[in-house]
Amino acid sequence: MMATTTMLNSPYNIGAVKFDVKVKPLLHFSHKLPPMRLNRRQMLTIKASDEGSNNGSGPGASRKMGLSDEECEAAVVAGNVPEAPPLPPKPSAPAGTPVVSSLPINRRPRRNRRSPAVRAAFQETNLTPANLVYPLFIHEGEEDAPIGAMPGCYRLGWRHGLIEEASKARDVGVNSIVLFPKVPDSLKSPTGDEAYNENGLVPRTIRLLKDKYPDLVIYTDVALDPYSSDGHDGIVREDGVIMNDETVHQLCKQAVAQARAGADVVSPSDMMDGRVGAIRTALDAEGFQHVSIMSYTAKYASSFYGPFREALDSNPRFGDKKTYQMNPANYREALVEMQADESEGADILLVKPGLPYLDIIRLLRDKSPLPIAAYQVSGEYSMIKAGGVLKMIDEERVMMESLMCLRRAGADIILTYFALQAGRCLCGVK
Ligand code: PBG
Questions:
Q1: Alpha helix (H) ranges present in 188-326?
Q2: Which residues of the chain have pLDDT under 70?
Q3: What are 217's strand-pairing partners?
Q4: What gap in Å lies between CA 358 and CA 331, rounded to an integer?
Q5: Which of 10, 126, 133, 169 has its CA at a distance of 20 to 30 angstroms from the CA of residue 281?
Q6: CA-proximal residue: ligand 1, atom 5 (nearest)
Q7: Does ligand 1 have an atom closer than 6 angstroms to the CB of 380?
Q8: Closest ligand 1 atom, CA of 307?
Q9: Is 309 in the pocket of ligand 1 (CB under 6 A)?
């Protein structure tokens, strides 16, 4: 696989970064690019004094073109103007075009959109593979199992499929992943204790990944739902109430187990009250001061999560998640969550879902100095995939536009199932 592209010949503007996708390690971190090597001789040749072209006495320009600068200027002053191409002819309009006097306007915004180069110069937002986090589903199996509701996504075998997928992502500059485990039913329980089994699927997988790719940035999900026999993010009391503080106790153990295995960023997605502060304290107590917390600050009780719950077989056995996830009708409430997460020590604030909640992303972006993450969730992904398969929309263009819009709204990073596909687009790799 070899491809070379710059932002100008790639269909997608990737910012000021020039990507040479050729050798794997080149892309992972730009500071690892080989330093420019100039030997002493080359350095001498770029010294200005050696160019000697603009005072007419040096050997440079005059030797090449025949005339000195003074001679050229004198020729023009004497009216002996050198030839240049004539003015281009005025392009003609189709027959029947009305003849009108021009509008008396001094603002014509189209001037700044008139060519690809001009548009690129004034583009306000850019998207690079470094902005993307790739959510990956893992299971105990050896094979990769396709997920029906999410075309192109698989439950990856933790030992092989996952490692290959992470490697492909790294090849196009996507060096961050977030893990979601499919847990065998027999390991699920009302209190979700498998969540902090240090030899469970997630900690084991983290250890394997870190062994293969020490610089891979690993995010984990902190919530009980994959481990809960009730399919809820917390412990369910017999009257159906989700128990807050008892759940937080479990989440702390889960986060510590993930950190111990080598997770870089633990991401509580459960929406229990007070979990960020409790997790911070638990991590610090165990010596994991360096592990970050990405809090799902504004996570809404959304129907866009449907395909994900199929992927993990994690649908709630009863009821819904409306007593802990936020009401999709609420905007100002996100500020309550934001203030709590900030004061409890969150490092990154996440909004979920993404595209239907751009106003919330913008709100947090404007109100908080912390980095903002957006989660383009399973339902958003599947809608774009389905529209593409049915040839109703151009999948690739809609994908790239949706990601750019999340960035424009204020997201620093985007969790998206399109991460690999988008990374390839950005690098001009098919
Ligand atoms: C659960 C969790 C969910 C997602 C991420 N973590 C689902 C839920 O809250 O039921 C959804 C992700 C997606 O839909 O892509 N802790």
A1: 201-212, 244-261, 275-285, 306-312
A2: 1-64
A3: 176
A4: 11
A5: 133
A6: 269
A7: no
A8: 14
A9: yes
